[in-house]
Design goal:
Largest sheet: 6 strands, mixed
Number of strands: 27
Strand order of the largest sheet: 7-4-6-5-9-8
Distance between the termini: 37 Å
Structural class: alpha+beta
Length: about 425
């Protein structure tokens, strides 16, 4: 039974019955019962580009103790301004074994653990060393140049959700949390079929009336960028029954099938009939209200999607990426993603620095049809920062402030393909 029956009695398309892409996807998912991808464990070195299958939580507070964000001197803020006795140096990777005495300071490097009794760090460029003393000429607020306990991650906090594509920031976060076996969705395999006696391999010189079969390689590349694999099957001839046989074989060995060509309503367009002959639910959508790409077929057999794309190369690739991507995502486990560049409204003032180019990480929040961009604290020591961010705003050399409520462009991080 066809959900979208947009054919005229004479075999053409009834334009008024064609579905918009969004409605076509609703029609597909309402009956396709797409099989959920399986989960497997992979190592840190090979998980980039894969889709996370389970949530990831922080196993402790990060940092577990206050750490210096600068090379300088650990002090008690109440002792500044003043001349402080240098009592030693905090060694990296170790804890100072006694309490800092009043009127004293300890040398400390970036990332060093603050000793008990101190609550701030004076950067080395803001201090003057005179023999065994360090002179601090200004007041120093408590917490200055210090990463507090749990300022990066809190114990039990969900850091990554399932359906997220793993990139460099996510790998760094997983390694920080000690997760060396990463639960990811198995990469789906799509069988690729192209039909037509006029098609020849790209390496061949086409004779008059023949064309190189470029669609299958473009579609394979598109699938790979979307996180799926492609398995090439032989070009299907125009002989009756040939398409059904090859389609059946592809369904037996793959998670889904993509066909290019033969999806329209002409005498040689056998894709809809071949899909309908193989099982349930069969053809779910035939024809879309789009240009290019009207002769598109969406179907499924036993939970495995079948995408019949137009034979026109532009139409085939556009439909795959602009319309059918959610169907591919359903097999990869990828959650719906945002556009790569988003126009948003600044939720808070975003500050830059004149003479510098600043990349400010932001979180995108959606309210109705609008996005707002909330700037995140720019702490370069925090491993989770980019994993929290949706993208970044570029503040140019002459931009000191983007006021709250102003429009801006958010550049989203590109995860890339496999």
């Amino acid at each position: 039974m066809r959900v979208s029956n947009a054919l005229l009695p004479n075999g053409g398309f009834a334009t008024e019955k064609l579905l918009a892409p969004e409605r076509a996807l609703v029609a597909f998912f309402s009956r396709a019962n797409v099989i959920r991808p399986q989960i497997e464990q992979v190592g840190l070195d090979v998980c980039v580009g894969r889709i996370l299958a389970q949530p990831v939580h922080a196993d402790a507070d990060y940092p577990a103790a206050p750490r210096s964000t600068m090379d300088g001197f650990a002090i008690l803020s109440a002792d500044a301004p003043g001349s402080l006795k240098i009592g030693g140096e905090v060694a990296m990777g170790s804890v100072w074994d006694r309490r800092l005495e009043r009127g004293s300071a300890l040398k400390i490097a970036t990332g060093g653990l603050l000793p008990a009794g101190s609550d701030a760090v004076v950067p080395v460029e803001d201090a003057r060393v005179s023999g065994e003393m360090v002179v601090v000429s200004t007041a120093i607020p408590a917490g200055d140049c210090v990463n507090p306990i749990g300022s990066d991650m809190r114990s039990g906090e969900q850091m990554l959700g399932p359906g997220r594509r793993i990139g460099a920031a996510e790998v760094g976060l997983l390694a920080t949390l000690g997760i060396v076996k990463v639960p990811v969705f198995r990469i789906p395999v799509f069988g690729l079929l192209s039909s037509g006696d006029e098609l020849v391999p790209p390496a061949d010189q086409p004779a008059l009336g023949q064309i190189r079969d470029s669609n299958r390689y473009a579609i394979a590349a598109g699938l790979r960028a979307m996180g799926a694999y492609a398995r090439h099957f032989p070009t299907v001839s125009d002989e009756p029954g040939a398409l059904e046989g090859m389609l059946r074989e592809a369904l037996e060995t793959c998670d889904g099938v993509i066909l290019t060509g033969g999806s329209s309503v002409g005498e040689r367009d056998r894709t809809p009939g071949a899909i309908a002959s193989l099982g349930s639910p069969g053809v779910l959508v035939h024809g879309l209200r789009v240009k290019p790409g009207k002769p598109t077929v969406f179907g499924a057999i036993d939970g495995k999607p079948i995408l019949g794309l137009p034979g026109n190369p532009v139409s085939a690739l556009l439909i795959l990426q602009a319309v059918a991507a959610p169907i591919v995502d359903a097999l990869t486990g990828l959650r719906p993603s945002e556009p790569r560049i988003v126009c948003a409204i600044a939720a808070e003032p975003i500050r830059g620095r004149v003479g510098w180019t600043w990349f400010v990480p932001v979180q995108l929040e959606r309210t109705g049809e609008r996005y707002s961009a909330r700037p995140l604290p720019l702490r370069s020591a925090n491993v989770s920062l980019l994993a929290r961010a949706s993208g970044f705003v570029t503040m140019g050399e002459n931009e000191e402030l983007v006021a709250a409520g102003a429009a801006l462009w958010v550049h989203q991080f590109s995860a890339g393909g496999l």
